[in-house]
Design goal:
This protein is α+β, with helices and mostly antiparallel strands. It has 7 helices and 9 strands, in the order E-H-H-E-H-E-E-E-H-H-H-E-H-E-E-E.
Length: 223
């Protein structure tokens, strides 16, 4: 089993419905959802397996157990206050379509940093096969350092809030898929929202879809 802590839009947020529809799968219920275009299935299969989310604590094999991890996620959520999520927009990361924060957010960065560090006792170090797979992608010296220390190259100074919408797209179709995404998410992205919970998601076996295990509301007070 692997587990991860994600930002997943709240159930009543129209972004949750738009995201499930785009990917063709609801990470909360596990249901298969009709997509807005038949052209999407081949480029959303990988992100659909992980569900509509932004990563806070990357997927990890557990050194403890799920109950212990859930207890620590609950404790973390109990001392963190909800906060407004900066406006999101359709953009690109490498050759993939993503939703990005339109402007930097100190509070988002602090939340991700806290999740990575506070929950790290539950993480088994990556084995040789995982390290080799990660290193197939060219990593900067800082990303290599993060991989060795935290088991994932994109944390702390190399982390960027994003919600993956597609796998890598051929250049010839990128613009058309970008227009489709912009139209699909336009209404949902106009709705103000908060980061109001931590979503603990699990992968039952290698290659299985990630599903919501539990959601932990942020109930701490503003400093």
């Amino acid at each position: 089993m692997r587990a991860a802590v994600f930002y997943v839009p709240e159930d009543a947020d129209p972004l949750a419905r738009a995201g499930a529809s785009w990917l063709g799968r609801d990470v909360v219920t596990g249901a298969i959802v009709p997509q807005p275009s038949s052209k999407l299935a081949c480029v959303t299969a990988t992100p659909a397996r992980y569900g509509f989310h932004a990563t806070l604590k990357p997927p990890m094999r557990l050194a403890t157990d799920l109950e212990a991890l859930a207890a620590d996620v609950a404790a973390l959520a109990s001392r963190l206050a909800p906060f407004p999520l900066t406006r999101l927009e359709v953009g690109r990361m490498g050759d993939a379509l993503v939703l990005l924060a339109a402007e930097p957010s100190v509070r988002l960065q602090e939340l991700a940093d806290e999740c990575v560090e506070a929950l790290d006792r539950h993480r088994l170090p990556p084995d040789a096969a995982e390290l080799a797979r990660r290193r197939q992608v060219s990593l900067s010296p800082l990303e290599q350092t993060m991989l060795e220390r935290w088991g994932y190259p994109y944390v702390f100074d190399t982390w960027r809030f994003h919600i993956t919408l597609t796998s890598a797209l051929p250049a010839k179709v990128f613009s058309s898929r970008e227009r489709l995404a912009a139209a699909h998410f336009a209404a949902a992205l106009q709705v103000p929202r908060k980061v109001a919970s931590l979503a603990l998601c699990t992968e039952a076996s290698p290659g299985a879809p990630f599903c919501l295990f539990d959601r932990f509301p942020l109930v701490g007070r503003e400093p």
